[in-house]
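Hello, quick one for you while I still have it in my head. A protein chain has come my way and I'm curious about its shape. I'm sending you its amino acid sequence along with the backbone structure tokens. I'd be grateful if you could look everything over and explain what you see. Here's the protein in full, and shout if anything looks odd to you:
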Amino acid sequence: MRLLWGLALLSLPASALAAPPDRRVLQPRTVDLSTKAEEARLEAIQRLPPLIRSVDDGRRAEVLFRYAELLFDQGRASWIREWDRYGEQIDACDANPACNADAVQVDNRGSERWYRQAISVYQKLLRDYPRYERVDEATYHLGLTLADLGEADEAVSIQKRLVKLHPRSPHTPAAYVAIGEHYFDADEPFPALLAYTKASKTDHPL
């Protein structure tokens, strides 16, 4: 894998990455996939919109951030399950000589619905509260969400904004790695190597 080669070249740990089938996306944190956790997320997602409308402006940014994170987590949980199901379908197809593996496609419609909502909330947060104390984290997760949706150009643009506006953020190294991955996937090794080098030289190297 080109990305892992690049990371090894710079002595960056591969543990910073997760690898669902045929995808390589940085994980910001572990998402609880249990039924209990999902029920709690869904309940909170239902309750937060009225609170956002009623809370005073000084607290609205924090509530918006929490809402976006819940939507992101639910999207990521759905996304992981979708790729797991895809893997099971591929395994079953491989065991059946009559099955055409090329016809087996991953269905990401469920996760996309959650991700689109998360993107909308992250964008509102960044637009309306640019001085919010966790704006760097919101920016990073917005980039991750776009990456999971396959919108690579938009995702790398967001990560570039993060490293430019928040060079001392603890999320900056991971953003540089995401930028490097983008350039490697585009067969542009030199800007990719530059991004990986910057990832290793930030205030919070991976």
